[in-house]
């Protein structure tokens, strides 16, 4: 049977949920009505659950992301945000209780709350800092700077904002979430209450949601990069530790490699769960192709020793020309019938030493060849430069020679013309003298 308090009655909604029904207004609600709370003496508990206080108003969570506002003097509630909200600084329950600690009853009544109720202000609404400066009823503001925030206060405020964002990350808030749906999950967190203003809380939330998608993408990219690096190291180590007997001439596929990892109990679900199969295969093939030539060299050297022992067992034990450390080890084991009794690691060590020497020799040879090639390239380049300089010098000399030849020919032609003109002038003078009367007598 449901309990009744005047017009209100309590009903069971199942799964431990209770709702309250008003017979007169036909209204039902999940939150315990004020009349019921007064009857149960739960007003103080109600005030403790407040999200914030501003003046004579308190903001409470009604569940399912809904907030209602309760007017303390008149004990009335409203779903709409009152116009008086924000005219006075927003306080937490601890600050509100400290401010009203002289009052024996934490529930203000209409008769004694008129003194603390703010008077209407016809001037421009004051800011929070100006209101803190003029409010003499708040002892918490005595040591707070009123002009502007100090650097320490700014850093502390930034720290609270970052803690609020960290809380949203811990709650796994996604970009598609809404403020009304998220509020019930975060309202009881201390990092939520550390932000003094409800508007600032919502502004931080909206900014977080706006950039959450890019943040998740960056985090996924970072996790993908770390997983790819871890997978590459795991593949490389597994290939290097693979026994000689497991090596095959045919390159393994990713499925065969995974089967071998399962066989030797090598599991890394945390890495493989993040990386797509295509990236796993790409990284594996790259590491496998780099490992394969060295592995085949090891396998062939091992097979050479096996064949040498199986085909020429007695000859190997008697001969002197076989100086390999592994053969020396085999020669000391006179009573051994099969190679399986020989420690594979000792044979591999001997093969590896020879392989390292051979690899070092090839490396030195390759370095010498590269040095010779580089020297030859440099020498040919120098020869080309010298040849170009020589051709340029010859071209300059040829141009100078042609210029001098042309100048000399021009001078010779000028001299010939002058001599010819002088001769013609002399002939004309002679003919004129021969024709004159004085010359005829």
Q: What would your notes on this structure say?
A:
- With 441 residues, the protein is an alpha+beta fold.
- Among the domains are: 87 residues, no CATH class; 69 residues.
- Helices cover 59% and strands 8% of the residues.
- It contains 15 helices and eight strands.
- The termini are far apart.
Give the overall average pLDDT.
Answer: 73
The main β sheet shows up as: 4 strands, antiparallel
Radius of gyration: 51 Å
Distance between the termini: 181 Å
**Backbone structural class:** alpha+beta
- Parts with pLDDT < 50 across at least 5 consecutive residues: 102-146, 333-344
Proportion of beta-strand residues:
5-15%
The H/E string reads EEEEHHEEEEHHHHHHHHHHHHH
Total helices: the number is 15
Helix amount: 55-70%
Q: What coarse outline follows from CA principal-axis ratios?
A: elongated
Query: Could you give the order of strands across the largest sheet?
Result: 1-2-3-4
Features:
441 residues; alpha+beta; 4-stranded antiparallel beta sheet; 15 helices; 8% strand; FF_domain; transcription coregulator activity
Set down the secondary structure blueprint.
Elements: E1 4-5, E2 8-14, E3 17-22, E4 27-29, H1 34-40, H2 43-48, E5 52-54, E6 57-63, E7 66-71, E8 76-78, H3 93-99, H4 128-134, H5 151-170, H6 179-186, H7 190-193, H8 198-240, H9 254-263, H10 269-272, H11 277-311, H12 313-318, H13 325-332, H14 344-435, H15 437-440
Antiparallel strand pairs: 1-2, 2-3, 3-4, 5-6, 6-7, 7-8
Helix pairs in contact: 5-8, 8-11, 11-14, 13-14
């Amino acid at each position: 049977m449901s309990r009744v308090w005047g017009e209100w009655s309590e009903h069971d909604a199942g799964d431990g949920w209770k709702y309250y029904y008003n017979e007169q207004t036909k209204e039902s609600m999940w939150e315990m009505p004020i009349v019921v709370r007064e009857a149960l003496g739960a007003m103080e508990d109600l005030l403790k659950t407040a999200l914030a206080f501003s003046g004579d108003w308190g903001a409470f969570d009604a569940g399912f992301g809904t907030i209602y506002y309760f007017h303390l003097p008149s004990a009335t509630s409203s779903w709409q945000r009152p116009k008086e909200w924000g005219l006075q600084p927003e306080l937490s329950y601890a600050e509100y209780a400290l401010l009203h600690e002289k009052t024996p009853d934490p529930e203000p009544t209409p008769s004694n709350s008129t003194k603390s109720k703010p008077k209407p202000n016809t001037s421009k609404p004051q800011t929070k800092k100006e209101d803190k400066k003029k409010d003499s009823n708040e002892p918490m503001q005595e040591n707070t700077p009123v002009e502007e925030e100090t650097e320490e206060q700014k850093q502390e405020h930034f720290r609270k904002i970052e803690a609020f964002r960290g809380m949203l990350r811990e709650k796994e808030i996604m970009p598609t979430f809404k403020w009304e749906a998220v509020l019930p999950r975060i309202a009881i967190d201390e990092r939520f209450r550390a932000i003094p203003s409800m508007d600032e809380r919502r502004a931080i939330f909206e900014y977080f949601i706006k950039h959450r998608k890019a943040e998740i993408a960056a985090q996924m990219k970072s996790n993908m990069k770390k997983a790819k690096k871890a997978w590459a190291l795991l593949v490389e180590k597994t290939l290097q530790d693979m026994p000689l007997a497991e090596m095959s001439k045919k390159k393994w596929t990713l499925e065969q490699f995974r089967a071998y990892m399962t066989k030797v109990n090598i599991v890394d679900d945390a890495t493989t769960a993040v990386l797509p199969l295509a990236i796993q295969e790409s990284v594996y093939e790259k590491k496998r192709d780099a490992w394969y030539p060295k592995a085949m060299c090891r396998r062939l050297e091992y097979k050479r020793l096996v064949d040498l022992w199986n085909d020429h067992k007695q000859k190997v034990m008697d001969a002197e020309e076989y100086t390999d450390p592994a053969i020396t080890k085999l020669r000391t084991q006179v009573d051994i019938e099969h190679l399986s009794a020989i420690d594979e690691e000792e044979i591999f060590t001997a093969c590896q030493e020879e392989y390292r020497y051979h690899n070092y020799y090839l490396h030195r040879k390759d370095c010498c060849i590269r040095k010779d090639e580089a020297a030859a390239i440099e020498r040919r380049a120098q020869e080309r430069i010298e040849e170009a300089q020589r051709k340029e010098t010859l071209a300059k000399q040829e141009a100078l020679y042609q210029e001098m030849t042309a100048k000399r020919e021009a001078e010779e032609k000028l001299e010939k013309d002058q001599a010819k003109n002088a001769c013609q002038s002399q002939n004309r003078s002679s003919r004129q003298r021969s024709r004159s009367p004085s010359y005829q007598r």
